[in-house]
Amino acid sequence: MRPITPSCILAACVLTAVAAAPAPVKLSFNDHIQPILADNCYACHGVDPGSRKADLRLDRFEHATRPRKEGDPAIVPGQPDRSPLVQRIESKDEKKIMPPPEAHKTLKPDQIATLRRWIAEGAEYQEHWAFVTPVRPAVPAVREGETGGRRDRGIGSSSPHSVSSSLGLPANPIDAFIRAKLSANNLTPSPEADRRSLIRRVTLDLTGIVPTAAEVEAFVADKSPDAYAKIVDRLLASPRYGEHRARYWLDYVRYADTHGVHFDNYRAIWPYRDYVIGAFNANKRFDTFVREQLAGDLLPARTFDELAATGFVRSNPTTNEGGTITEEVYVNQTRDRVEAFGATFLGLTTGCAACHDHKFDPVSQKDHYGLAAFLGNTAEKPWDLNISEPLPVLRLPKAENKASAEFILGQRAGLQEKLEARRSRARELTAAWLADGNKPQPVPATGLELRLRLDEGAGDVLKNSAPGAKVATFKAD
């Protein structure tokens, strides 16, 4: 969960001045084509069947290249001139041109050229970017002196934290990408910043606060080759690092110390905040970070942090305002969880799908309410009773009792794991038990007062089929 190395700070500064890069060897659907289609075509030919026209979808390869009653598919890979998509876009006939005049959208010549080139290259589609596995690109080869400059300030080193490589050979792969981009655009890097600027930048970036005067002077006076690397290591080890990084995560998950609606009372959810801060400071694995927040209470937890992690699910605004409808409040709270989950863990917007299939992100209305059913499966009641700790709550031990309490928690977790392991072998163990000559024995009916088969199949009344039953039916509650 570490951020990218501080060389990226330099990258951000340098690349703001870099002109648009030359066209890639092959166009990318997500980077070059999707924006054009989304802006001009998807309103009528996208994922939403409610607004789709002419039974044509352009967001998926299998639909866009499917033969149509009129003849060729909308897109004929490798043949832009045969593709009706291009023909209609380039048409001069107001009855045929796409987008139609009433849409008030017109593709620019360079956009049309981009579409033509992409189709000529085979019209290769890609999955939504959030579903594409990141691929590490090859590091560009850079020769010293290719963009000018020299290393002469005594700060550079082979450390991955070095930034002085902007003036000489790259010290890490990020520098190589920057140098290659500069070289491609015939640009020379700016001179390296002075030490006072460097320590201020990196301290702000990693902790959100400025360095002290003593820290600045110590860095200025440190002439060792790894002076900058030592600063970065010190900042990454600081508790302020986790606090700063946690701010961004807590914004995504809509964390708040108050309820958010009506009286906006205090909410005792700070253990979740501390969990997030601790996770960043400990450089917790991201898959563990996700699992604990979504299902920490369902796992055999060994620490109270693992249980507090599910504060993610309890961060939604709550209310106890008179006149509100319980079911409506429940739906709104669950929808809030679905939206936060999509933005935080999926990199998708899921809120639009509450009313219809998403028009741009690949999220259907069914997906939305499937997530809602999962994330709404909590013991939380819609109304918060205007108290700071509406049930369910996690009671935390005092600091002096935490070690012993977590020892007991760990013992329980071990028993849970053994039980789950045995449950997973239920079929195997049952078969072995039967193979030993054992036979299941029916429960004797003598004196039996309650026998619920639960096979009614409808309604909320359960039948008691026990021979000696005093009550024949029960109403489910």
Can you walk me through this structure?
The protein is an all-alpha fold and 477 residues long. The N terminus is likely disordered.
Strands, total number: 2
**Hey, roughly how much beta strand do the residues contain?**
under 5%
Question: In this structure, how is the largest beta sheet organized?
Answer: 2 strands, antiparallel
Adjacency order of strands in the biggest sheet: 1-2
* Anisotropy-based shape: extended
Query: Based on helices, strands and strand pairing, what is the structural class?
Result: mainly alpha
- The SSE string, one letter per element, is HHHHHHHHHHHHHHHHHHEE
> What is the overall number of helices?
18
What separation lies between the terminal Cα atoms?
46 Å
Mean pLDDT: 87
| Unreliable parts | 3-21, 147-167
Radius of gyration: 31 Å
* Helix percent band: 40-55%
Structure in a nutshell:
By secondary structure, the chain is mainly alpha-helical. About 40% of the residues lie in helices and about 0% in strands.
